[in-house]
Amino acid sequence: MYGRLITPEIEELIAARDFSTIREVILEFEPVELADLVSDLREENRVVVFRLLPKDVAAETFSYCERDTQQELLHDMAREEVGALLNDMSPDDRTQLFEDLPGNVVSELINSLNPEERSIALALLNWPEDSVGRLMTPDYVIIKKHWTVQQALDHIRNYGKHSETLNYLYVTEHGTLIDDIHIREILLSQADVLISDIMDEKVESLLATDDQETAVKAFRRLDRFALPVVDIDKKLLGIITLDDVLDIAEEQATEEMQRFGAVEALDDPYIDVPIIELIRKRATWLVVLFLGGFLTATAMSAFEATIEGAVILALFLPLIISSGGNSGSQAATLIVRALALGEVSLSDWWRIMRREIGVGFVLGLLLGVLGFARIMIGETIQGHYNPLVTPVVAVVISISLIGIVMAGTIAGSMLPLLMKRLGFDPAASSAPFVATFSDVTGIVIYFTIATLLLRGILL
Amino acid sequence: MYGRLITPEIEELIAARDFSTIREVILEFEPVELADLVSDLREENRVVVFRLLPKDVAAETFSYCERDTQQELLHDMAREEVGALLNDMSPDDRTQLFEDLPGNVVSELINSLNPEERSIALALLNWPEDSVGRLMTPDYVIIKKHWTVQQALDHIRNYGKHSETLNYLYVTEHGTLIDDIHIREILLSQADVLISDIMDEKVESLLATDDQETAVKAFRRLDRFALPVVDIDKKLLGIITLDDVLDIAEEQATEEMQRFGAVEALDDPYIDVPIIELIRKRATWLVVLFLGGFLTATAMSAFEATIEGAVILALFLPLIISSGGNSGSQAATLIVRALALGEVSLSDWWRIMRREIGVGFVLGLLLGVLGFARIMIGETIQGHYNPLVTPVVAVVISISLIGIVMAGTIAGSMLPLLMKRLGFDPAASSAPFVATFSDVTGIVIYFTIATLLLRGILL
Q: Which of A450, A447, A451, A317 is closest to A396 using CA atoms?
């Protein structure tokens, strides 16, 4: 937002090669604002601004840039500039950047790091993709239990500069994590108190091999800003901080919603995804649903005689089957979200089923009554009312609606649970998937009831 | 999770009135775990456990409990216990609790507070609902610019105990906020450095009258753990912390998804919402969509002669119109989410439209080709192939699919933007809404093409 306002000025200053004024202007901004500003500049000017930033500000600004901007910058910078920048980035941000780059580019970039940062980068990249290990940073402060609060404060002052967070200090013994101490405890204690006196020996930690979803859940449950990461022997390996977990959580929410809309998860913001990619991500599900949809034609053809005998039934078909799809989407939405938030679990299936049968019946009845009234009145107004046919058709539609809406709510609520049971993402039982499923059941229910009730009247 | 494991033991100990053992056991747990544990106990036992907790632990545990459990506990406690508990809660958590209670209960509870907490509670409740003011806490640490780092540390040690966070310290002059200082700066500076030397006089703040969505966006943009809240004159009123904002963000994501599934936002977790409420929240949209769906019957009746002449067209109707609904849901999902994340804005509408026309054409062509092949092969295998009719029907379906899928993607992408333009939530253009809209256009497109191409053949 700051970017767009001063972008023209910066571009002008660059054209005028007035670098000292630029430096003055940009140092007024925070890294997060600079990232905005840089991304609004023309590509050839971005590197110029980066070169004017102090090293640590440059690295932080770079972390806030969008992936695309980052990759363009890396491409435009000289080799030694790239090395310096990556050396100054925090290891967790750097790992996340590497994950999105092709393997050969990553190897080259890792070679540009200094030996110390290179071994950190390699250690982090050795953990499986989507594991907590990839999110860790090895920058944290360790204190010892026999120290006083004053010693801890002195230690922080001398060695805390590169720590990703000073919110928590970690107490280790021979490398094993034995406690985490909130900086608050240190700040509120007298200088001569021993660390062992404020320890509670209760520490929540994550395993480096845990998947990142576990980390999101742990942060949500524990309300922490940082959590330590250990190996199976409780050795402290690193910490992960809330900001990285928030990014992961937001990505997960987006993927969940996209999958629920029957789109494969996009890797980039919508507007940046190339059209061909956008097509590919949508084509798969659309084709699957389309081929599945041929079942509706198969179901319909079983009732061809009924339709030929009573074309009026076909007129109400889209209305009726879409009511099943709509009520199914509603149920699926509620259950998918409740599963994602951990509000319901698989073992609740019977409780959910009972609720949805009740809800489906009432909603179906409501639409049934409305449908009956609407058809009786509509046909009368249009002068199509036929005392032998119209009431029966209206009854067929009402009863079908009850059945179809119930089928929709049951399918919509149970399919996400079934998906989860089978090890898939519940959101894969998307609204369109539930709707297509409801279409087929809807056709069978509607025409079966019609065939039974209209026999001898229209058929 | 801890709760379920030891719940039976606690229940037994309560029955045996062995309160000292209970106290020992429960003090092993963190407040967040205690909240889990308490909610798993039988209602009459919950208060017993609460009475055994130290006052501050009780207040923190209470904050972590679900709303229902909180309300039951308040109901079961003696009046003075309630007062003590509420006095010890942090003001922001207390305000959020009050927001969900009926007005008369709130007045009674506020009267149970001590005078100091009462005036804080009243001040917070005076801000409009959903405003930043309601989320503030007045518990923060103020420092002065002429102090040294050591003076600041001493001040924190003496007065920081009740501060909601010690991550940021606020520098004020006559009540006006002039800077925020990260505790990191204090911890890393030498003891004799002046606060004014580490000040950068850059401070991001929120207005108490801003709505909570603004707060969520500011936290997302600035990557902060806490932000100060000021009035229009820059006077510091309070701070809001990331944990409260996260709760709001999660609520918003849930509401967005529910609205997108054509359900009015639920006030409580799915499984806790009474069935009657669940029906009410779903009935509104279902009825609106149902009544809107009658337009499909109207559209169909315009083509009654076409359907009577060529019942085969009706067989493929559900398949064809649902393809429009599915591609529309996909487009709407992507745009609603991109709007929520701020990836696209209204001014991008033409760029989005162009992309979606391209995507829609390719996807429609794909389904068209598949549909053509499937019908030609299917009718041949079933022995229904008619050299005069089948190829023409297949062509009608293919061309219709291109038109319908394009109509679906355009409607799905533009409706959320239109909603936003009109001041509604973009998620209100839900998947079922887009699908119903596509049904009507789909019917018109399909039968219009059919009437034109089949004239003289079947009609």
A: A450
pLDDT over 60 (residue B171): yes
Predicted model pTM: 0.72
| Contact between chains at B187 and A160 (C-beta distance less than 8 A) | yes
B18 domain residue, yes or no: yes
Which residue matches tokens 């998804």?
A: B257
- Write the CATH number for A70: 1.25.60.10
CB contact under 8 A, B343 and A270: yes
CB contact under 8 A, B260 and A338: no
Q: CA B194 to CA B192: how far, in whole Å?
A: 6
Residue B293 to residue A319, Cβ atoms within 8 A:
yes
Inspect the interface and report whether the beta carbons of A319 and B335 lie closer than 8 Å.
no
User: Which residues 106-145 of chain B have a CB within 8 Å of chain A?
Assistant: none
pLDDT score, position B5? 61
B160 neighbourhood in chain A, CB within 8 Å: 184, 187-188
B170, B144 in Cβ contact below 8 A? no
Record: contact A271-B319, CB cut-off 8 A: no
What's the complex ipTM? 0.72
Q: Is A157 on the interface with B (CB under 8 A)?
A: yes
Domain CATH for B221:
3.10.580.10
Query: pLDDT tens, A233-286?
Result: 899 988 998 878 877 888 888 888 888 888 888 888 888 888 888 888 888 888
Residue B401 exposed, middle or buried by CB count within 10 Å (0-12, 13-18, 19+)? buried
* pLDDT at residue A291 greater than cutoff 50: yes
Contact B363 A283 (CB under 8 A): yes
Q: Are strands A168-173 and A176-182 parallel, antiparallel or unpaired?
A: antiparallel
Any B CB within 8 A of A353 CB: no
pLDDT digits (tens, 9 = 90+) for B180-234: 999 999 999 999 999 999 998 888 999 999 988 889 888 878 878 899 999 988 9
Assess if residue B164 is contained within a domain. yes
Amino acid identity of B397? I
CB contact under 8 A, A325 and B321: no
Report the distance separating Cα A227 and Cα A214, nearest Å.
12
Minimal CA–CA distance to A264: which of A288, A248, A291? A288
Chain A touched by B346 (CB under 8 Å): no
**Closest CA–CA distance from residue B92 to any residue of chain A (Å):** 15
Alpha-carbon gap, residue B366 to B355, rounded angstroms: 17
pLDDT at B34 over 50: yes
Closest of A249, A248, A211, A204 to residue A230, by C-alpha: A204
The closest CB to that of B436, out of A260, A322, A431, belongs to A322
- Domain range spanning residue B435? 270-454
Residue B363 sits in the same domain as residue B281: yes
Beta carbons of A99 and A134 less than 8 angstroms apart: yes
**Average pLDDT score over residue span A205-209:** 92
- The model's pLDDT over B357-381, given as tens digits with 9 standing for 90+, comes to 999 999 999 999 999 998 899 888 8
- The four Cα atoms B283, B284, B289, B290 give a dihedral, to 10 degrees, of 50
- Got the DSSP string for B34-80? HHHHHHHS-HHHHHHHHHHS-HHHHHHHHHHS-HHHHHHHHHHS-HH
Query: Does residue B378 sit in the same domain as residue B274?
Result: yes
Locate the chain B residue with the closest alpha carbon to A149. B157
Q: Is A67 on the interface with B (CB under 8 A)?
A: no
Q: Do A343 and B270 touch (CB under 8 A)?
A: yes
| Domains: count for chain B | 3
**Domain end marker among A73, A99, A126:** A126
Selecting from A271, A315, A332 the residue whose C-beta is nearest the C-beta of B301 gives A315
Answer whether residue A1 shows pLDDT above 80: no
Domain shared by A73 and A164, yes or no? no
Asked if B326 and A435 count as a contact pair (C-beta separation under 8 A), the reply is: yes
